[in-house]
Structures are given as structure tokens and as C-alpha cells.
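Researcher: Quick test of sequence recovery. C-alpha cells follow.
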């Protein structure tokens, strides 16, 4: 064959086998990515399952009635919507009776870090409250001290375990499956607050009822997270910041002499801010009262 004949024939090219190799590598990468994603999803679902099972065991031990099954009796229209501190009637609030039967001591026998139980009637929140030596441990451990990304509902390590401080902070994750403190986001709606105006906490000796007074999204540098609120002026400034920033109007106005509860969770949109729902203590029921 002459040189001319060879030059007019089909040229030799590596483009096709090279493209085939690239497609093969890309397919392998996509398959590995899909497997990794499936693995992460499975891991997350297993954590959700384990977290739910742990919460159920706590409920069984403490003899708790799920929050969505227990709602306080409606207050007659002629009565004020928020009674004064420590003057509520146990007979008009069946949830208090349920909370008073909870065996918090039985939970503490499993884990001494249990400080109580929190419930929002009808709001899908009913969990034990923990308190660690720092504010990191229970971010990733269940109340049984088992590692879990869902963590626990826990009291700020700086607070008194008897909920007796002027301002008590309680934290919880905003889980994608709607558990832990995820329902708190619903307080962005006025109608939701109207149907869920109260937060209940028991520490095994007393039951506390807090009337929700604010819901909003503070920065992590907000006075809500301040370490020192000892002066009356600092307390008033903190309360004013909460009331002025709240996205709901409740008519509940705390004073510097009151005891406040803040439930804090993430927003799902970054780390610069948090979502909080805040309550003012309006009733205290001694555990031994009938």
C-alpha cells in the first residue's frame, strides 16, 4: 500500500476509548455517591428509631401520658386566661394530676442527670430533661447516655436544677422527623400559640406551669443567652428585647421579679441565630398536694 493510500484511510484516534473510560469512572463515582447517601440516610433513620425508642422507655418508666393525649380543661370565658402564680386549681387542670404521678426518681435511678420532665399539651413535646456538666454532652447523647445525633432535651449547665433561677434555659434539637424541639417552630403562628399557650415542667417535687409570652429568632449574642442577669435593669432589658422581637402577641408581660423559661432550638438556616419560645411562671403545684 502506498503512502497516499495510507493517508486517505480512516485516522487512528484514542478519543472513543478515552470517553468510554471517563464514562466508566463517572458511573463508579455516581454509584459510590449514591451508596454513601443511602448509608447516611439509613444511619439517620436508625438514630431516629433509637431516639424514639429511648424516649418511649423513659415514658414507660416515668408512667408519663403522651402530651397529645392530655390537654388541660378549658378555662371558662368569665375567668382570666392566666391565673396568678401558685393559685391554680389542680381540679381544673387534669394534666397537673398526670404530671404529679410521674416517677422522676425512677428515671434518676437510671441516670442521675435527669432533672425533670417537660410537656407542651397537644404540642408533641413530652420528654425527660437532662443536665450535664457542660452544654455539649446531651447534644449527642440520649437520656440513657447512649450516643445519638438527636441528643436530649437538656437544661443549661449554668442553671439551677430546680428551675428556681430568674431565667432558665432549656435546649433541644430541631429534628427533621419532627421530634424533640422541632414543634417549637409552629409558635411562629398566632393561632398555634392560642391552642398551645402553656408549657409544663415537673422536677419530681413540684409542677410548674409557664404561660408563653414570646416566640422569636434571637442572635446567639442576644441577652437571652447572657450569663449574668443579676440586676433589675439587665432583666428588664432582656424582657423588653424578647417582647419587642416576638412574632406573636400573647398579652403576657413578665417582670424582673418573675421566673422565666426559654426553650431554645436551631433554625435550620445556620448557626448565627436560634429559635426560642419563652414562658413566664404562673402556677406552681407542690407534688404532695392533692
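Model:
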Amino acid at each position: 500500500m502506498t503512502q497516499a493510500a495510507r493517508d486517505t484511510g480512516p485516522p487512528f484516534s484514542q478519543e472513543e476509548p478515552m470517553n468510554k473510560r471517563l464514562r466508566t469512572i463517572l458511573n463508579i463515582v455516581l454509584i459510590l455517591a449514591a451508596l454513601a447517601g443511602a448509608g447516611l440516610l439509613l444511619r439517620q433513620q436508625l438514630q431516629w428509631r433509637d431516639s424514639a425508642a429511648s424516649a418511649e422507655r423513659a415514658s414507660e418508666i416515668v408512667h408519663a401520658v403522651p402530651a397529645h393525649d392530655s390537654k388541660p380543661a378549658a378555662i371558662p370565658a368569665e375567668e382570666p386566661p392566666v391565673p396568678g402564680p401558685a393559685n391554680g386549681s389542680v381540679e381544673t387542670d387534669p394534666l397537673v394530676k398526670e404530671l404529679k404521678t410521674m416517677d422522676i426518681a425512677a428515671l434518676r435511678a437510671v441516670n442521675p442527670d435527669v432533672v425533670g420532665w417537660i410537656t407542651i399539651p397537644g404540642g408533641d413535646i413530652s420528654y425527660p430533661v437532662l443536665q450535664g456538666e457542660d452544654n455539649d454532652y446531651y447534644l449527642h447523647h440520649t437520656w440513657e447516655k447512649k450516643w445519638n445525633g438527636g441528643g436530649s432535651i437538656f437544661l443549661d449547665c449554668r442553671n439551677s436544677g430546680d428551675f428556681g433561677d430568674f431565667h432558665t434555659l432549656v435546649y433541644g434539637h430541631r429534628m427533621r422527623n419532627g421530634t424533640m424541639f422541632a414543634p417549637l417552630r409552629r409558635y411562629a403562628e398566632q393561632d398555634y400559640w392560642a391552642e398551645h399557650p402553656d408549657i409544663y415542667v415537673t422536677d419530681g417535687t413540684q409542677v410548674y406551669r409557664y404561660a408563653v409570652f414570646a416566640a422569636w429568632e434571637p442572635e446567639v449574642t442576644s441577652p437571652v443567652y447572657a450569663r449574668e442577669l443579676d440586676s433589675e435593669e439587665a432583666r428588664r432589658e432582656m424582657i423588653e428585647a424578647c417582647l419587642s422581637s416576638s412574632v406573636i402577641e400573647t398579652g403576657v408581660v413578665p417582670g424582673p421579679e418573675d421566673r422565666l423559661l426559654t426553650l431554645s432550638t436551631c433554625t435550620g438556616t445556620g448557626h448565627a441565630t436560634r429559635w426560642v419560645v419563652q414562658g413566664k411562671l404562673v402556677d406552681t403545684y407542690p407534688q404532695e398536694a392533692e
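The first strand starts at residue 114 and ends at 120.
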